[in-house]
Design brief:
Helix content: 25-40%
Structural class: alpha/beta
Number of domains: 2
Number of helices: 13
CATH topology of the largest domain: Alkaline Phosphatase, subunit A
CATH architecture of the largest domain: 3-Layer(aba) Sandwich
Radius of gyration: 23 Å
Largest sheet: 9 strands, mixed
Strand content: 15-25%
CATH superfamily of the largest domain: Alkaline Phosphatase, subunit A
Length: 476
């Protein structure tokens, strides 16, 4: 015990208290990315088959982008605008227990064909439209839940009401980290509503696999950072001494409590936080980018500054080796952005805030050679109805048919798969359930969704539960 000889006067409580400021240990409890002291459980792991992608960037458009106003052109909506039609609608049935007539509502924006693939895109997304030859557009999506909370939770974790690991945690658990100095799963600007922290939770997986939130909905992206990652005014040599003392104390604790996941994860968070001091601040520092790149993302411009900053952070994090990055677009801590029940023109406001940054991210990844092994996933928890709501001023929720866009990572490009009916209401061709989308993304990462399991409470769990198929039709 000679290593404690010069520190016999320091209690464990005092050591923890002083060391926390040195490397953000206590503030970074969510960054528990080492299962045991001295081990490297987040080193890259053996995959089930040869992967085509190494990482995922999920651009979450919270609230339900209207697919029939954006990527799913339906002439029938223009032809029958205002006509009363009986719609077999899950949300209406849940409310009234009967099929009722609704007024058909045409899109508020015109469509135009883009790219060599000739994909129709509306005036909402002129910048993304220039990249349609890089996109795989899934028009036959359907999911579970008719309200934001259940559907958002389902999209993240594969369940509508239980506490299960989020997809990012499953990816982290299955693949390990590409960079031991950074967390493997990051959520940028997450919302506190509609699942909140459960959307980046590890649930019953070891706590070392939970996501790391940076920023929060309602807080400007320029103010989003990892708090207490540095300790201004504390000498680096003193920080090193504090850390070595804490490491020694933790090693003794770990010896006395072998197999204690909670303790090992906290120890791991201290270790990671120490390494992050010299890595994370510089990666999140956008001032290192040139003016051309900043302008491409719409940074320091209205209305794109906020989401542009998050998209650029996502590129920098992915380039540095973070496995799963979620970029959240939502109005504030509780309200989803694209939820226009009574004000469809507001879709344009949100499109202007996100369209240019998303296009910039695609362009940036492609020109850096990162798009080949990075899956970019753009989409919402569900779509919106083809009929009008609130006297014709909005659209209701639609989990039965909607659109998701994918790019990179071995997914077919310039390709549209699946279709909804003539009104854009139900998925009818090339149907892809959210379980199927999860299974396919895991497949591209080299993970078999049926083999990626974790035994808990007497049974084996997986992201796709007992469902899901790999959609081979969209794989290049």
């Amino acid at each position: 015990m000679d290593q404690f000889a010069n520190h016999s006067f320091v209690s464990r409580r005092d050591a923890l208290k002083s060391a926390a400021c040195g490397f953000g240990g206590l503030a970074l409890g969510a960054l528990a990315h080492r299962v045991s002291a001295g081990s490297n459980s987040f080193a890259p792991k053996l995959v089930h088959h040869t992967p085509k992608a190494k990482r995922v960037i999920f651009l979450f458009m919270a609230g339900g982008v209207s697919h029939v106003d954006s990527f799913d052109y339906k002439q029938k909506l223009f032809d029958d605008d205002g006509k009363m039609v009986r719609f077999d609608d899950a949300r209406t049935l849940a409310k009234t227990r009967k099929i009722v007539e609704h007024a058909v509502k045409k899109p508020l924006w015109n469509f135009k064909n883009y790219g060599q693939c000739g994909q129709p895109v509306s005036e909402l997304f002129p910048h993304m439209a220039k990249h349609v030859d890089d996109l795989c557009i899934l028009k036959g999506m359907h999911t579970e839940g008719v309200a934001h909370g259940p559907s958002t939770l389902f999209m993240h974790s594969g369940t509508i009401n239980l506490i299960r690991p989020s997809m990012g945690s499953w990816v982290n658990y299955g693949l390990g980290s590409e960079n031991e100095n950074l967390p493997g799963f990051v959520s940028l600007g997450p919302s506190m509503g509609n699942g909140g922290p459960r959307n980046y939770s590890n649930a019953f997986l070891p706590s070392s696999y939970q996501g790391t939130p940076i920023g929060r909905a309602g807080i400007p992206a320029k103010d989003s950072s990892i708090k207490n990652i540095t300790a201004p005014g504390v000498d680096s040599k003193e920080q090193q001494k504090q850390f070595e003392l804490l490491r020694a104390l933790n090693a003794e604790q770990a010896k006395r409590r072998p197999g204690d996941d909670e303790l090992n994860s906290v120890i791991g968070s201290f270790e990671l936080a120490w390494r992050m001091q010299n890595n994370a601040p510089s990666i999140l520092d956008l001032s290192k980018e040139n003016s051309k790149t900043l302008a491409m993302y719409g940074i320091d411009q209205k209305p794109t500054d906020n989401f542009g900053r998050y998209c650029l952070m996502a590129r920098r994090l992915s380039e540095a080796g973070v496995r799963y990055i979620q970029v959240n677009y939502t109005d504030n801590g509780n309200n989803p952005s694209w939820d226009q029940h009574s004000n469809m023109p507001k879709h344009m406001e949100h499109a202007r805030a996100t369209d240019k940054p998303v296009a910039a991210l695609l362009q940036d990844l492609k020109q850096r050679g990162l798009l080949d092994d990075t899956i970019v996933w753009w989409g919402s928890e569900f779509g919106r109805t083809p009929y009008a709501q609130n006297k014709g001023t909005g659209r209701d929720h639609n989990p039965d048919g909607f659109t998701v866009c994918l790019a990179g990572g071995g997914i077919k490009s310039g390709f549209a798969y699946g279709n909804t009916d003539e009104y854009g209401h139900h998925a009818v061709e090339g149907k892809v359930h959210m379980h199927d989308l999860h299974a396919t993304i895991l497949h591209q990462l080299g993970l078999d969704h049926e083999k990626l399991t974790y035994r808990y409470d007497g049974r084996d769990f997986r992201l796709t539960d007992v469902h899901g198929r790999v959609v081979k039709e969209i794989i290049a």
